[in-house]
Write a structure and sequence with these properties.
Layout: E1 5-7, E2 13-15, E3 19-20, H1 28-39, E4 44-46, H2 54-67, E5 76-81, H3 88-102, E6 107-112, H4 120-132, E7 136-142, H5 146-153, E8 162-166, H6 174-183, E9 186-190, H7 202-211, H8 215-226, E10 229-230, H9 237-244, H10 253-260
Parallel strand pairs: 3-4, 4-5, 5-6, 6-7, 7-8, 8-9, 9-10
Antiparallel strand pairs: 1-2
Helix pairs in contact: 1-2, 2-3, 3-4, 7-8
Bound molecules: nicotinamide-adenine-dinucleotide.
Nicotinamide-adenine-dinucleotide (NAD) binds near residues 142, 196, 199, 216 and 234.
């Protein structure tokens, strides 16, 4: 069910599937995408200060709540502090700026977007502060490798609720998934569809044909069966609907292992250890 949730390590419930809006243009494009997603049952939206579309996201969320007779508590809104904003005071400001642009009274989840060397622990202290003040229901990280998490956890007062990382059949992140599961950190998949590059893969096409599903749906189903939260991006209504229609079939254990076997440790995005975006 599209509104099914996972309980995070602080008790907060997060939908298993949400809409990602990276590269959705500020203005009509992002507004229409978010409104359409919520109208079709999505309850989670993933944005970031870096996406430069928080105003549109906020506007769309507010009107979708009204149009669909929903309460604010029924949607889960994530944003992230950008790399150039990291540090203690600058992160506090970044959080307030995001909240203001979104026009919301609180966020559901705020993430450290990348582990910027020498900065992410100070950034985390700022997240702990806004969390303690009740301005955000949960705090987490993104693009953290095991060694970043080890380092953070050695000093953190609050354990991150999620680690949002690049995750798809070419990058299955087995060690990181196991590590996060052990620590009670929910893994969340970004670029679950490999930014569209995986959709013609023959193995995946064969599995999809068996269920009368698309490759996108098979990959998203694989995420869910692995216990990974997923946030596919689309601004097209038909694809927004398609990506959410993954709750009426189940992959076999063998198919899960076949998809796991496609791993090539291949990233389409940046490597958190070598080329963090500026
Ligand atoms: P994605 O894997 O979700 O792929 C999105 C692209 O795939 C779309 O632009 C579209 O071209 C295509 N697509 C989507 N649904 C389709 C369908 N049903 N059929 C055919 N094509 C389809 O890639 P993404 O946008 O990079 O990742 C998803 C979300 O993850 C982002 O929007 C963002 O919210 C988040 N993200 C986070 C980070 C991070 O550093 N934390 C980085 C990248 C993305």
């Amino acid at each position: 069910h599209l509104q099914d949730t996972v309980t995070l390590n602080n008790g907060v419930q997060m939908p298993w599937l949400g809409l990602g809006v990276f590269k959705a243009k500020e203005g009509d494009e992002v507004v229409q995408a978010v409104k359409s997603a919520i109208r079709h049952g999505y309850r989670s939206i993933d944005t970031a200060s870096a996406y430069r579309n928080e105003e549109g996201v906020g506007q769309a969320v507010r009107s979708a709540l009204e149009e669909n007779n929903l309460q604010r508590e029924e949607v889960f809104i994530t944003s992230k502090v950008w790399n150039s904003e990291q540090g203690y005071e600058t992160t506090l400001k970044s959080f307030d700026d995001s909240l203001k642009r979104l026009g919301l009274e609180y966020l559901d989840l705020f993430l450290v977007h990348w582990p910027v060397k020498g900065k992410y622990k100070e950034t985390w202290r700022a997240l702990e502060k806004v969390y303690a003040e009740g301005k955000v229901r949960a705090i987490g990280v993104s693009n953290f490798q095991i060694h970043h998490l080890e380092d953070l956890l050695s000093e953190a007062k609050v354990v991150p609720v999620v680690n949002q990382v690049e995750f798809h059949p070419y990058l299955t992140q087995k060690d990181l998934l196991r590590y996060c599961t052990d620590k009670g950190i929910q893994l969340e998949a970004w670029s679950p569809l490999g930014q569209g590059h995986l959709l013609e893969h023959e193995t995946l096409l064969n599995i999809a044909a068996k269920y009368g599903k698309t490759v996108a749906q098979v990959i998203l189903r694989w995420d869910l069966q692995l216990g990974v939260v997923t946030i596919p991006k689309s601004v097209r209504e038909a694809r927004i609907l398609e990506n959410a229609d993954v709750f009426d079939f189940e992959l076999s254990t063998e198919e899960i292992l076949t998809i796991d076997g496609l791993n090539r440790n291949q990233r389409f995005g940046s490597d958190p250890d070598t080329n963090i975006p500026k």
